[in-house]
Amino acid sequence: MTGPVRRPLFRALLTGVATAATAAGLALTGGAGTAHAATALPSHVSAPYFETWTGDSMSGLASASGNKYLTMAFLQAATKGSCTPYWSGDSSMPVAASSFGSDISAMQAAGGNAIPSFGGYTADNTGTEIADSCTNVGSIAAAFEKVVTTYDVSRIDLDIEDNSLTNSAGIDRRNKAVKQVQDWAASNGRTVQFSYTLPTTTHGLASSGLNVLQNAVSNGVKLDVVNLMTFDYYDNASHDMAADTQTAAQGLHDQLAQLVPGKTDAQLWGMVGVTEMPGIDDFGAAETFTTANATSVYNWAVAKGINTLSFWALQRDNGGCPGQGGSDSCSGTTQSTWQFSHTFEPFNGASTPPPANDFSVSLSPASATVTAGGSATSSVHTAVTAGSAQAVTLSVSGAPAGVTASVSPGSVTAGGNATLSVSTTASAVSGTYALTVTGSAAGTSHSATYTLTVTGGTTACTAAPWSSSAIYVGGNTVSYGGHTWKAKWWTTGETPGTTGEWGVWQDLGAC
């Protein structure tokens, strides 16, 4: 996410609205402000990012937009090599009550809170992100602690992208500092969470983001929240942004299950956050998050029980620039002012419905080597992963010519077992094959792979495999189903063995 830019005219208009809203009823403390006791964040929180460099009234915009919680972007060093963070890297805006103290105090008095965020694209690109800039772990931890005590907040966000994803020394320093702060908070009776905000693919974290979390775990950090930036994929594809949010988050859920084993499904979803970019993102119109997408993501987030819903950024939440992408002051899509805020705001403290019934499928053993003519078996295990046990229908696919496979019984109650039986003929082709055992129930399916290696059988086909999209002419040969086939004339899309004796494909026999 971006950093300081010139303040546009539209934002000045928003400030006027916010100032009026504040004067109408949001009480601000005078002068530097006095911190109220921090309100603990709910287990489900909506906290859009607020651009701190604009001069806008944070508490005023919070009131005008209906947001109780905001994520403040960003804290960074003023110069590379410094250990002192400032708001937007501006040395006139230190971590002090004089900078946003009154705003944060007012939000806390209204039952909300702020989440200060360190980093952001500009800091991560210029080496002014605190852990990239400062080489002393204790000083980094002290900077985090100063933010907590100055503003009496209960969560710090770490926006890690661009060069900060590959700065291994900075990653390790940051995570060591986080661990120090977590220990300090525990010994002082404070609740302090950290959220790791990271770029994502449409199916979970890339290796660079995963490395950040792996290093955190190796340093003893308790992972509270991992917040995916579900935009700016830059993969030159058209996107259903709501669907891609869900697949990205599912991928993260599965990665977290490996990183922090032993947690329940609900606990894993409770560690997930997503940050959208309303309207047209920096890539362009192919990545447009619509108001309808926002409703879909909200309903999904409630159903899954994720931790955090956010978007970049509050000052974009208006339709003031139709068709324009990547602006910091408008979404570029058709919407009413604060429409995305109003869609996400009810997520604060939203209750999660009972989990849907779900199950898993696994195999033991998951592989076997047999001589052609031999057989093997494997135990098919099912287990309840959410909700209640349900009937699961079992099937197996992928057996090549000369191999038969079956599952018995063909249906079990989740938690029950079955047997996979595999037999081969003497004419089975030597090779390694993947058989897929699938369990299906109530529109949901899960699979496990059984790897079968056949030895001592016939030689594998030498002709190129048949392709449904290729064009063949008379005399061309292909392999399909363990046989070699010769085309009699021009053909495409006709499967060997389905055109009959007088069809285009002549069966030359088993390979």
UniProtKB/TrEMBL annotation:
One of its GO terms (biological process) is chitin catabolic process. The keyword Zinc-finger does not apply. It is an enzyme of class 3 (hydrolase). Its EC number is 3.2.1.14. Residues 1-23 form the signal peptide. Keywords: Carbohydrate metabolism, Chitin degradation, Chitin-binding, Glycosidase, Hydrolase, Polysaccharide degradation, Signal. SMART domains: ChtBD3. Residues 44-341 form the GH18 domain. GO terms for molecular function: carbohydrate binding; chitin binding; endochitinase activity. It catalyses: Random endo-hydrolysis of N-acetyl-beta-D-glucosaminide (1->4)-beta-linkages in chitin and chitodextrins. One of its GO terms (cellular component) is extracellular region. This is chitinase. It comes from Actinacidiphila bryophytorum.
